[in-house]
């Protein structure tokens, strides 16, 4: 992520009141406080990153969470038109967590803010301290439709080698460690779900 592309004013935090244009579940200060307490490799990279890349990473983390996870409740209530106005997957209605606690309809639970912080620090490259994508990796195909398992290129003398897979392509979602585990243990997501979310 090039410096200067995003600014702190570009970050719009959802606080549970269905904020127009919301693109994050946390402020930069909240993510920084979370990272400061943990001091692991990813947290330290977040602390080294400039504000512009932190903003981008927070937005990337929100996009990834909302696309990857299928939540177990809906964002709409009977007789309301929240769906048309709500930009993010939270807040939600009639949601219980894994401890049986009912989450208020205007609340962003700690499960979500903690997972978001974890994904945000993972969206900072640990070498360059620049924002990077969090994504589902797909097995690539060549022009004939064969699935590429591995490629090798050599500069001189020119040589290219391609290994093909015998099986069909599968979606491979990278493991994001604690970020994934927070949501898996929360009771808020459908386990085994991919990128489809229940919106009402």
What does this structure look like?
The protein is α+β, with helices and mostly antiparallel strands and 200 residues long. It has 2 domains: 137 residues, no CATH class; 36 residues, no CATH class. Helix content is 32%, strand content 10%. It contains 6 helices and 6 strands; from the N terminus they run ααααββαββββα. The strands form 3 sheets. A two-stranded antiparallel sheet has the order 1-2. The longest helix is centred in the first third of the chain and has 18 residues. It is globular, with a radius of gyration of 19 Å. The C terminus is likely disordered. InterPro entries: DnaT_2. This is Putative DnaT-like domain-containing protein. It comes from marine sediment metagenome.
């Amino acid at each position: 992520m090039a410096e200067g592309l995003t600014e702190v004013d570009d970050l719009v935090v959802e606080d549970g009141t269905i904020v127009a244009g919301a693109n994050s579940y946390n402020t930069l200060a909240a993510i920084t406080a979370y990272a400061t307490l943990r001091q692991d490799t990813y947290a330290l990279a977040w602390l080294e990153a400039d504000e512009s890349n932190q903003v981008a990473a927070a937005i990337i983390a929100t996009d990834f969470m909302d696309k990857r996870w299928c939540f177990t409740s809906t964002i709409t209530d009977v007789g309301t038109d929240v769906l048309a106005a709500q930009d993010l997957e939270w807040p939600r209605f009639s949601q219980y967590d894994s401890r049986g606690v009912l989450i208020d309809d205007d609340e962003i639970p700690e499960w979500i803010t903690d997972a978001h912080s974890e994904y945000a620090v993972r969206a900072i490259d640990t070498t360059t301290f620049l924002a990077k994508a969090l994504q589902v990796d797909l097995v690539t195909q060549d022009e004939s439709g064969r699935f590429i398992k591995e490629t090798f290129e050599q500069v001189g003398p020119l040589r290219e080698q391609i290994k093909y897979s015998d099986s069909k392509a599968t979606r491979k979602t990278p493991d994001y460690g604690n970020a994934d585990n927070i949501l898996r243990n929360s009771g808020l997501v459908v386990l085994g779900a991919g990128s489809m979310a229940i919106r009402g």
